């Protein structure tokens, strides 16, 4: 009997050591690197139709010269150059600026899981709404990583979208910050604001990402002092003050489709109680939609327009909640680009929770009502002149890097924007918002060659933004073959054992993730 027990123990120990060895090997296994395309000093696009995203006019049969990363000539007659130039036949095709996704979340594995898909889908710029505290995180990235990615992009040594503005970590009050972090991150009192802003100024951050549970008095101080440090506020509207106050305090952009529903119903003040707002919201969602005050919403939208406050509705997040119970939605073919770890640990829980809520209704669920209401409010805000920016909220459930931006453009057209206006929400409007209109947003002389060659006219059908013939990133051309390689690269990465191990360990080791899930 003792021999059997000893033998059993030896087997268990051996299996344990084997498992540890396998996991360690997988974690340390080097990731592959995508080989960027050949860089040409000069590229000529012949006979291309150029879409003016400002006016909606199309300049037909144009010749475009790109030298290194810049557009240096646009002409209606043939352009000739040296023999070593790359020549692209654009006959019958359409040229638009690279698209920007203005609400994303990158992590330490985005190089493999997100960046290739962005570029394959013509998303050449993103605004990352994540960040770090005073230490490097195992999961989230911060301004240092993103700025290095930008440098590598300029040197054509990395496949990456441009990270157009740098974010702080999300400021959500004391509960959102690990206990061991410096107290000023917790923003328990307004006197900590200067320390926070001094820290992020040194980190070359452009804006402070504000979140829902930030105390009102601290938010007010942040809003007043951030411009003195060269920063602005962007993100959620904190629950404990009203939207009029936040707009008048010059928060530059508001995220997600619920901001007006939170404000425009008779009992909105009940959502401003720090101790009970979550419980009240969960039991009052139907009331929030059904008793929506469109007159009050109109006044808020007019104020946003006057203050040049931008709105990023991220309709994809509400679309997921509304459709989580529908197999046609959850059987998305792009799931092959998502790691098993994320699908099983994160997305499955999210999907099951929303599916159950939707099925309980037995009909038109409250989540579906929220989604439809948010689209009506986008239409209303747009009609009143509010600047709408396209954003998706990668890496939320069933939001796919690159692919979902095209879906967001479609939903914006379903919300009252024309095809041209939807294009503007992902090109010229984000470029102006980011103060980068000099280099991006339109196709003009001197601007960066971040471009998409489409097979069909997107002004006729917004779905044509998906029909990509080629992508220019910093003047480097990704043809159809290279685009397929980009997609395959991420598909192989997400299906690999070692990437899933890395993803799991990065999540478990992140104190920021642990706090987020605990909250």
From TrEMBL:
InterPro entries: Amidohydro-rel, Metal-dep_hydrolase_composite, Metal_Hydrolase, Metallo-dep_Hydrolase. Pfam families: Amidohydro_1 (PF01979). One of its GO terms (molecular function) is hydrolase activity, acting on carbon-nitrogen (but not peptide) bonds. Keywords: Membrane, Transmembrane, Transmembrane helix. Residues 295-475 form the Amidohydrolase-related domain. The keyword Membrane applies. The chain crosses the membrane at residues 7-29. It comes from the Bacteria. This is Amidohydrolase family protein. The lineage of its organism: Bacteria, Pseudomonadati, Bacteroidota, Flavobacteriia, Flavobacteriales.
């Amino acid at each position: 009997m003792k021999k059997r027990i000893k033998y059993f123990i030896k087997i268990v120990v051996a299996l344990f050591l084997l498992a540890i060895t396998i996991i360690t090997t997988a974690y340390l296994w080097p990731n592959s690197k995508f080989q960027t395309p050949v860089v040409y000093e000069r590229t000529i696009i012949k006979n291309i139709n150029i879409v003016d995203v400002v006016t909606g006019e199309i300049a037909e049969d144009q010749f475009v010269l790109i030298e290194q990363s810049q557009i240096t000539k646009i002409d209606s007659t043939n352009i000739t150059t040296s023999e070593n130039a790359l020549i692209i036949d654009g006959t019958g095709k359409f040229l638009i600026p690279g698209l920007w996704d203005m609400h994303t979340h990158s992590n330490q594995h985005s190089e493999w899981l997100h960046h290739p898909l962005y570029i394959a889908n013509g998303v050449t710029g993103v605004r990352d709404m994540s960040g770090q505290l005073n230490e490097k995180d195992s999961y989230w990235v911060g301004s240092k990583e993103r700025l290095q990615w930008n440098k590598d992009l300029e040197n054509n040594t990395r496949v990456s979208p441009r990270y157009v503005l740098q974010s702080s970590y999300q400021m959500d009050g004391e509960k959102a910050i690990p206990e061991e972090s410096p107290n000023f991150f917790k923003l328990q009192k307004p006197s900590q604001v200067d320390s926070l802003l001094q820290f992020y100024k040194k980190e070359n951050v452009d804006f402070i990402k504000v979140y829902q549970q930030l105390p009102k008095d601290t938010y007010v101080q942040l809003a007043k002092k951030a411009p003195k440090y060269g920063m602005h506020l962007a993100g959620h509207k904190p629950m404990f003050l009203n939207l009029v106050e936040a707009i008048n305090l010059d928060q530059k952009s508001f995220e997600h489709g619920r901001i007006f529903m939170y404000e425009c119903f008779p009992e909105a003040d009940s959502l401003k109680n720090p101790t009970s707002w979550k419980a009240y919201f969960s039991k009052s969602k139907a009331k929030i939609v059904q008793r929506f005050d469109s007159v009050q919403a109109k006044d808020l939208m007019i104020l946003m327009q006057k203050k040049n406050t931008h709105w990023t509705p991220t309709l994809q997040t509400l679309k997921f909640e509304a459709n989580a119970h529908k197999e046609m939605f959850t059987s998305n073919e792009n799931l092959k680009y998502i790691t098993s770890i994320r699908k099983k640990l994160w997305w499955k829980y999210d999907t099951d929770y929303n599916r159950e809520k939707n099925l309980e209704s037995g009909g038109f669920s409250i989540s579906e009502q929220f989604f439809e209401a948010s689209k009506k409010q986008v239409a209303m805000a747009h009609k009143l002149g509010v600047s709408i920016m396209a954003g998706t909220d990668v890496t939320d459930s069933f939001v796919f890097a690159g692919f979902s931006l095209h879906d967001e453009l479609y939903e914006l057209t379903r919300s009252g924007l024309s095809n041209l206006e939807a294009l503007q929400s992902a090109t010229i409007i984000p470029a102006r918002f980011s103060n980068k209109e000099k280099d991006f947003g339109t196709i003009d002389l001197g601007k960066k060659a971040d471009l998409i060659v489409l097979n069909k006219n997107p002004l006729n059908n917004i779905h044509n933004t998906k029909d990509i013939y080629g992508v220019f990133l910093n003047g480097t051309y990704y043809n159809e073959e290279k685009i397929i390689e980009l997609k395959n690269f991420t598909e192989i990465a997400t299906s690999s054992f070692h990437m899933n191990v890395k993803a799991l360990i990065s999540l478990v080791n992140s104190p920021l993730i642990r706090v987020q899930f605990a909250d």
